[in-house]
Amino acid sequence: MIGDKKIVYSAVQPTGCITLGNYIGAIKNWIKLFEEYNGIFAIADLHALTVRQVPADYRQRAVSFFAQYLACGLDPEKCILYFQSHVHEHTELTWILNCFTYIGEAQRMTQFKDKSAKHADNVNMGLLDYPVLMASDILLYQTDYVPVGIDQKQHLELSRDLAIRFNNLYSPTFTVPEAYIPKQGAKVFSLQDPTKKMSKSDPDVNATVSLIDTPDDVMRKFKRAVTDCDGFVAYDEENKPGVSNLLTIYSAVSGKPIEDIVPMFEGKGYAELKTEVGDAVVETLRPIREKYTDFMKNKDYILSVAKNGAMQASGIARRTLSKVYRKVGLVEA
Ligand code: TYM
User: Fold this and answer.
1) Which phi and psi (to 5°) does residue 322 adopt?
2) Most buried one in 99, 143, 186, 212, CB count within 10 A?
3) CB of 190 closer than 6 angstroms to any ligand 1 atom
C-alpha cells in the first residue's frame, strides 16, 4: 500500500459471465480510481456459493474472471487482485460481525428477498449472511470508497451501519466506507427487458453482453435489442427504457454525454442507433477480448498474480482482524 492514499475496494462474484453492465457500472471506474487511490479487488468466490455451483465449472470460471479483470486493465503492479477464498480473514470477520447484525436487518435486504424468491428451494443461511460477508470484505481493508452499481447500495449501507455500530460500542476500529456510484451507467439494463438490470445470470443469452462475446454476437444482440414503437430517439427512462438504455451504454463506452448523443440521431431510426451502439461496444471490447485470450494461455501467470495478491491482502486484513479480536475480548494467540 502506498503512503496515505485512500483505499478503494470492490469485488465481483464469478457467476454467469462478466457483462457489459459490470464493466460500465464497476470495472471501468476502478481502472480510473486506482490511478489515484490504493485499489484492492477480489473475485468474490465465497459469495457465489450461496447458490449451487458445479465445482469444475466454478473453478474454471473463477480463473476466467481473473483473466478478464487483468484484460480490462487492472494492473497487479498498481493494485491488489486476489480470490476472496484465499484470504481467510474474510470469513473470520464475518463471524464477529454476524454477532453485531440483527436478523431483521439482514431480512430487509432487497437482494435477499429477490434471491429467496428466485431460489425458493434453497434459502440458505449464506444468502441471509451475504451482506455481512460483503461488509467484512470492505471493512477489513479500512476502505474509504466502494465503487459499485446502484444495486449494491443497500448492502453498502449495512456495511456502514455495522462499522459505525462497532466503532461506537468499542472505539474507532473501522473506516466508515462510502459508495462510489457512477452517475451514468450505474445501472445498465437487459437488452431484452429494459426494465430489468443486465444480469450475469440471465438465462436469455440475448439479454446480456459478455466481455468476451465475439463481435458478431455483440452486433446480433444489439440489433435484437428491445426498444419501443415510437420510432424516435430520446432519453426518457420511464417511457422509453430500451432506447434510454442504449443511449446510456453508448455514452458510457464513447465518453460522450447523452445530451450530445441524442441530436446525432435526429431524423434517424432505431436501426442506426443499434448499429452505432453495437459498433462502439465491439470496439471497446476488442482489445479486452484479445488480451483475455493471451492470459488464458498462461494460467500459471494468473495463479501467481492471485497468490501474490492474497499475500498482500492478508497482511492488511490480519491487522484489522487482530484489532477486532482484541477489542471484543478474545485472548491473544
Ligand atoms: P456482482 O458480482 O453482482 O456485480 C459486480 C458489480 O457490478 C455491478 N453491476 C452493475 N452495474 C451496473 N449495471 C448492471 N446491470 C450491473 N450489474 C452488476 C454491481 O453493482 C457490482 O458493483 N455483492 C457484490 C460483490 C461483492 C462486493 C464486495 C462488491 C462482494 N463483496 C465488496 C463491493 C465490495 C455483487 O453482488 O456484485
Assistant:
1) -60, -40
2) 143
3) no
In a domain? residue 271:
yes
Residues of the chain with pLDDT under 70: 1-3, 184-186
- What's the confidence (pLDDT) of residue 292? 97
Annotated catalytic, 200?
Answer: yes
**Residue 227, SS3 per DSSP:** coil
Residues sharing a CB contact under 8 Å with residue 26, sequence separation 6 or more, in sequence order: 10, 12, 147, 148, 149
Q: Which domain holds residue 313?
A: 6-180+298-328
Q: Is 210 in the pocket of ligand 1 (CB under 6 A)?
A: no
Half-sphere exposure of 282 (CA within 13 A, CB side): 16
List the catalytic residue out of 28, 187, 200, 221: 200
- With a 6 Å cutoff on the Cβ, whether 261 touches ligand 1 is no
Catalytic residue among 115, 221, 240, 274: 115
Q: Tell the residue number behind the cell numbers 466503532, with chain if given.
A: 167
Same domain, 233 and 304: no
The grid cell for 192 is 431484452
Q: Is 118 one of the annotated active-site residues of the chain?
A: no
pLDDT in tens, 84-97: 999 999 999 999 99
The predicted structure's pLDDT at residue 184: 62
Cα dihedral 21, 24, 30, 31, rounded to 10, equals 130
3-state secondary structure of 145: strand
- CATH code for the domain in which residue 141 is found: 3.40.50.620
- Phi first, then psi, for residue 141 (nearest 5°) are -100, 10
- Each residue's pLDDT tens digit, 249-271: 999 999 999 999 999 999 999 99
d(CA 229, CA 274): 15
Residues 147 and 245 in one domain: no
CB of 188 shorter than 6 A to ligand 1: yes
Identify whether 299 is a catalytic site residue: no
